[in-house]
Amino acid sequence: MSADARPLAPPFHLPMMIRGERIEPSDTDSVHDFGGAMICAPDPIRHMPRLGLRNRSALDDLHALSIDAIVDFLAGLQDRLEPSRNVHLNWAMRMSLAASGLAPSIVEAEFRKLSKLFDRAHIEAVADGMGRPFLEGWCALARRNGDPMITRVRAVGARSLHIIAGNTPALAALTLVRNAVARSDAIIKIPSNDPGTAVALAQTMIDYAPDHPITRHMSVAYWRGGRSEIENRLLGPHYLDKIFVWGGQQAVDGIRQRAALGVDVISFDPKISISVIDLAELEAPGALHDAADRLARDAASLNQTACFNARIVYLIGKGDAPSHDMSRRLAEATIAAVASLPEAVSGAVLNLDPVLADDIQALRLTGVGGQVLGRLGECCIVISDDAAPVDFAGALSGKAVNFVIVPSIDAILPMLSHYTQTIGLYPMALHTRLAERLALAGGQRITALGCAAAAMHPGAPQDGQDVLRRHCRWVSDSVPASAEDAHGAQMPEWAIPTLEKCDAL
Amino acid sequence: MTICSPERAVDESASHPMPPSGLAEDPTMFLAMPYHQAINMPADAQEEIHIRAAARLFDALVDRIPVLKSLASQQGVTSITSIEDIARLLFAHSLYKSYPNRAVQAGNFSQLSRWLASFTSLPIPELDYGAINCVDDWLTALDRASDLRVTHTSGTSGKLSFIPRSRGEWDRGAIVLARCVEDWLHGIGQGPDLLNSGITIIQPSYEWGAGTPQRSIETMRRMYSGDHGTVLYLYPQGRLSADVLSLGSRLSASALQDDVLEAHLADTLRIKLDEFRARADARPALQKAFFEAVRERFAGQQVLIYGTWPVIYDWAADGLAGGASTVFSKDSLLLTGGGTKGRQFPADWQSDIFRFLGFDGHLESYAMTEVISNCPRCRHGHYHIPPMIVPILLDVDTGSVLARRDGMRGRLGILDLLATTYWGGVLTGDLVTLGGWERPCPCGVQGPHIRGVIERIASLRGGDDKITCAGIGNAHERAIDELARLVR
Fold first, then answer.
1. Helical (H) or strand (E) element with A353
2. Is B285 left (phi over 0), alpha (psi -120 to 50) or beta?
C-alpha cells in the first residue's frame, strides 16, 4: 500500500487524550513493554481529576445533539479514516505492526476496513439497535387498563470506561461509534496489542471538529491493568456509570472486584467458538472440500486471535474406522485450505504460545490422547482419541484446532458453556434442527460454517447480552394521567406534565 | 548463615585433581568420588566427560524409552556428539504432565500406565485395574509390583506431573545429598556423616505418599536412619493423597464453591477430601503437640529436620517465647525448601530459628523434581552445579544453545546423568544466569554455577495488558468440566 510502512523508532511515544486535548509523554514517564515494542505514555495518575468526569451534567452538550446530527458527524469522519491518507491512523497502524504480534498483511487489511464502521447505514443500525426513539426523547410505554400513571422511558448517556481488546483496531472504532450514538462520555483504556488506534481516532476528530461535543467526550489513556492507585479512584460511582471490559480473565476478574457498587460492569468474557460438522454429509460430491474451505476461514481468520474463531470442531460420526478416516481427510483438506487463504485473512503467525507448543509436542511424542496433523503456526489439527476435547483445547491458538468425534448432537450439548460463543454448523440443514437446542445449551451466536468471521449485524446481541442498549442509562418518568394523582389528590392544571406522543416499542 | 567458606570447602592441595577415569562410562561413579572434588571439577574437565556420558546414556535408553525415541527421530538425532545434540533432546518440563486429565477423572488407569510406560525403561507391571479406583491406588500398586517409585509434584500449575523414578535412583539422590552435607555444610568432612549416622529424622508432615518430600524421607529413612533409626511424622501412617492434590489443583483457582463441588464427588474422593480437611483443621494444635514431644524426646541429640521455613519459624518463635533455646546438638541439620511461601518474617528470623534449634547447619539448594542431585548454594548466593548434571543454557526465543561464557542468561536445560531408567534431559521453565565457565565463583569453587536471581519464563511472556477476546478462563473451565463428569 502507499502508506508509510517504515517501522517506528523505539521507544514509541504514546500520547494521552483527554476530551479533545492531547498530552504527550514527558521524560519522567515510564516505558512499558507492549509485546516487545517499548512504549512511553503519560502517567494518568497525574491527570486523574480531569480524566474522570465528576459532573454528570457535563453530558448536556451531547444531549443537545440530535441523533441525526450524531450520525452526520460520525459519517463525516469516514472519508478521513483511510490509513494511506490519515497520518494518525498510519502511525497507529505502524504501532500495531510493532505491538500486535499479527502478520503485517492482516494488520494492514484490518486498518483498511476500519472506515466501514463509519458507513451511515452502519451507524443508523447501531442507533436502531439501541432504540432510536428512546435516544431521541421520552417514549410512553403502553398503558394498562385503569393505570393512573403514564410512564415514559428515555435512554440517556453514561460516563463509561471501555477496557477494550486489541486483537483488531475495529474494536476502538466500534467503541467510538456506539459510545457517540449513546451520547456517552468515553474513557478508552489502551490495550497493549493495539496501542495507537483509539489515539488516532481521537486526534482525527480534533483535526475535524475540535470543539464538537463528541470530540470533547472521548479520552484515551494507558495504565497497566490492575494498577490500584488509578483503578481504586477511577472505578467508583463518582466518576463512572459503566465499565465495558473485554477479554482476558484477569482483566475481567480485576475489574469486577474493584468496580464499586452502583457501577454497571458489562464484560465480554473470554470466549471460544466451535463448529459442528456432520461427517455423513461429507460423502456428497464436493462437500469435503467445501466444509474444509469454510472451516479454514472460521479457524484461521485474523490468525485465530479472535473469540469467534473455531477452536473445537465436533464431528458427528460413529467413531469407527470410516469416521476416523473421514476426519483425517477433513483435517488434511483443512490444512491445505488454510494454506491457501488470502494473506489479508490469515498470515504468518509471529508469536507461538510456547506452552501450547509444548502440549502439542507432548501429544506427538507420547501418542496418548490424540493424533496431531500439520504444524502449529501454519495449521495444526489434533484429533482426540475419544469423544472429548484435549486438556488444552481452551488455549488453542496459532491456527490450531481440536477435532472431536462424537456420536450425536446430544454428546455436544453438555460440553457447551457460557464460554461458548460462535457455533458454526455444517451442513445448513443442521441449522433448523439445532439452533434452539444450541441456544438453550449456552451457545451465543449460531451461524453457518464459514460465516464466523463475517461482520455481525450492528444491532445483533453479543456474547448473549443486549450490549447496545446497555451503553445507555435507562430512565423512567411516571406522571399521573389525569388531574388526579396516584393517591386521588387533585393537582393544579399547570402541574400536569405535557407528554410527547411517542410510539411505545 | 553458615554455608561453605572457600578456604575449607575447596581442597587447596588438590585444587585440580584429575577426575577418575571411567566417569564417562559410568556416571554413577561420581557417587564414589569425594564430593568436594566432584563439585570443584573445572568446567573444561567436565565437558568431555559430559558428552561421552550423555552419548552412552542415550545409546542405552533410546530404544527403551518411547518418548525419547520419538523425540530423537523427530529431531534427527541418532547419536550424541555435542552439547547441541543434548539440547535437542530435552523434554519440556510440561511433558511429565501431558497425560489426558480425563484418564484420571474417568478412572482409566490403564491409559495412565500406558502413558507412563512411554517415559521409563522399566517394564510397567501387570496391574489389576479393576481394583484401582484412584491415583493413590495406582501409585501403591506400582510400588508393590515394581521398582518404580513414581513421584508427583504438588500441582500448583493445575495438573500433577508424574516422574517415573526407580528406587535405585532415589537412593542415588540420598547419597549425593549426604555427601554434599558432609563436605559443603561446614567445610570438607565437617558436616554430619548421614549415611552412617542412624540420625533421627523429624518430618512435620505425612508419612506416606508419592510427593517428592514423602519419597525423599522414605529414602532417607532407609539410607540414613537404618533399621534402628527413628523417623517422627506429624501424621504417622497418614498419606498425602495425590487425588486430593489433583482435585485441589484443578479447583484452586475456580469460581466454584467447595460445597457445590462436594455434592457431586465420588465417595472415595469425598472420604479423602474429608480426611484432608480434618487434618488441615487439626494441624495447628497437632503440630504444637508434635513439636513439644520432639523437643522433650530428642533434646541435646542429633536430628535431621525436614520442613518449610514458616513451619520451622512458628516452632522456634513458640519455643523461644516459652524460654527454650539450644534444643538440639550442634551437628544437627535442617533441610528446607520452597522459600518462605509468601510469609513476612521479622528481621532476625533466621538467627531466631538457629538460636532456638541450637545449630545453624542448613542447606539451601536449587533442585527440581525431575533431577536427582541438588545444586547447593554458596555464601555468595550462587548455586553450584555438581558434575552429574549437564547444564545447557538456551536462548529463550530461538531455543539455540548459548555460549558457555560467564554472565550469559537464558533458559536452563539440564541433563541428569544419574537418571538411568528415565531420560534425565529436561528443559526447565527457569531463566537463569550461569557463571563458572571462565572464572571460579568468588567462594573459590570451580565449575558452572547458577547466579542468584532465577525467574520463571512464564512470568515474562505476554507483555503488559495484551487483551484479546479469545480463550477460556483457565481453571474455571476445568472445574466446570470436572463437575459435569462427577455428576452421577
1. none
2. alpha
CATH (residue range A272-448): 3.40.309.10
Q: Which fold has domain A12-268?
A: Aldehyde Dehydrogenase; Chain A, domain 1 (3.40.605)
pLDDT tens digits, residue range B58-100? Answer: 999 999 999 999 999 999 999 999 999 999 999 988 899 999 9
Q: Which of B118, B165, B154 is nearest to B372 (CA)?
A: B165
Angle between helices A321-339 and A287-300 (to 10 degrees): 60
Alpha-carbon Rg for chain A in angstroms: 25
The secondary structure of B54-98, three-state, reads HHHHHHHHCCCCHHHHHHHHHHCCCCCCCHHHHHCCCEEHHHHHC
- How far apart are the two ends of chain B, measured CA to CA in Å? 56
CA B467 to chain A, closest CA, distance in angstroms equals 5
At residue B249, the 3 state secondary structure works out as: helix
Check B467 against A192: CB less than 8 A apart.
yes
C-alpha cell belonging to residue A281: 454429509
Cell digits of residue A421? 460463543
| Partners of residue B71 in chain A, C-beta under 8 Å | 365
B269 Cβ partners below 8 Å, 6+ apart? B134, B243, B244, B247
CA atoms within 13 A on the CB side of B24: 11
Residue A437, min C-alpha distance to chain B (Å): 18
What is the 8-class DSSP label of residue A414?
G
Q: How far is B128 from chain A (nearest CA, A)?
A: 21
CATH 3.40.309.10 domain residues, chain A: 272-448
* A473 strand-pairing partners: A156
Best of A34, A309, A312, A361 to substitute, by most chain B Cβ atoms within 10 angstroms, is A361
ipTM: 0.80
pLDDT tens-digit profile of B5-23? 333 444 444 445 556 678 8
Sign of CA pseudo-dihedral B25, B28, B34, B39? positive
| pTM, 2 dp | 0.83
- Cβ A362–B102 below 8 Å, yes or no? no
Which three cell numbers, joined as nine digits, stand for A375? 504444524
